[in-house]
Amino acid sequence: MSKKYSNNKILTLVITLLFVFSIFGTVVADGHNDNMKDIVDTAVDADGFNTLVTAVQKSGLVDALKGEGPFTVFAPTDKAFSNLPKGILDTLLANPELLSEVLLYHVVEGKVMAEDVAEMNGAQVETLYGENIKISITDGLVYINEAKVTSTDIETTNGVIHVIDSVLVPYEDLMDIVDTAIRTGSLNTLVTAVVEAELVGALKGEGPYTVFAPTNEAFAALPDQFLEHLLKDKNVLQSYLLYHVVEGKVMAQDVISLDGVSVNTLFGKNIEVSIKNGSVYIDNSKVIITDIETKNGVIHLIDKVLVP
Q1: How far apart are CA 199 and CA 75, in angstroms?
Q2: How many CB atoms neighbour CB 97 within 10 A?
Q3: What is the extent of the structural domain holding 52?
């Protein structure tokens, strides 16, 4: 799903994104900075929007602080990032390419001011990511997809910024379960096992599936040579892996309502969902990260390998 862009576009994206958090301490009530500086100079002394800063750093775009534009940026606040399902943000920060694509999904070419947006109700606008965002107006409020615009017309020397209360994520364009696991970093052993068990094709299928994914540490905690034995026996390995997969897309809020319920797995045996001291357990394994959404389902990380 990777999109190709010119260096100038990416450079301008980063500069504009960095400017979001740099201007908030100096803009006046109408959103205009009377002492407007270029984006690079203003970004040097910036405060706030820490998650956005981290995202730009993790994306590998920090050095790209130059560009002409103009561009329009719909910029999420720190609170917007904090409202993301925890697994999504962790996945993004661990994967610079995917993170860059999500950032590009917040940027539109050209300088679109609030008065222009107000006339675009229902319009689909292409982003630098290459996919469209939808502009809509409800009860006098402007929304970009499901994100509400909370501050408008923060002008810069190379474009304009509108602040939004949610992070825009092109979920329909996310990777499938296998690709997401590959990029997550903490699931390398699971990916190896899936490959050895010849289940890659199945887990890249239409689904949807819910995967309770043991981390690298979970596999490392298995008895000595147990994993090595599993990797050598494809049939047994398949059984173990399928015992971690449930049909359907079961989000964290759904799991919480399943306390005490036994759920059938693709292995054909049931796993038991329970809640202890506010934590969710699958059999005796604790769920540690939830709701990593993928194109064909969702992944929840667990701290132990489930044994059928």
Answers
A1: 39
A2: 11
A3: 7-172
| Of 49, 143, 140, 59, residue with least CA distance to 98 | 59
The DSSP bridge partners found for residue 258 are none
Structural domain includes residue 280: yes
Domain boundary among 172, 189, 222: 172
Within a domain: 264? yes
160 touches 70 (CB < 8 A): yes
- Residue 83 and residue 106: Cα distance in Å, rounded? 17
> Number of C-alpha atoms within 13 angstroms, CB side, residue 24?
16
Report the 10 Å Cβ neighbour count for 83.
Answer: 13
- The string over 171-186, giving b where at least 16 C-beta atoms fall within 10 Å of a residue's C-beta and e elsewhere, is eeebbbbbbbbbbbeb
Residue carrying structure tokens 């996310």: 174
Give the list of residues 6+ apart from residue 265 with CB closer than 8 angstroms, or none.
Answer: 242, 243, 244, 245, 246, 271
- 3-class state of residue 159 by DSSP: strand
Per-residue pLDDT of the chain (308 residues; tens, 9 = 90+): 444 445 455 544 444 444 444 444 333 334 444 566 433 343 333 455 677 777 877 876 555 434 577 888 888 888 888 877 555 677 678 778 878 888 889 888 888 999 998 789 989 999 888 888 999 998 889 999 888 999 888 777 887 778 889 888 775 556 789 888 877 778 889 988 998 999 988 998 989 999 999 999 999 999 988 999 999 999 999 999 999 999 999 998 888 889 999 999 999 999 999 999 989 999 999 999 888 888 899 999 999 999 98
Please tell me whether residues 151 and 33 are part of one structural domain. yes
Domain of 86: which CATH number? 2.30.180.10
Regarding whether 178 and 166 lie in a shared domain, the answer is: no
The four Cα atoms 182, 184, 187, 190 give a dihedral, to 10 degrees, of -30
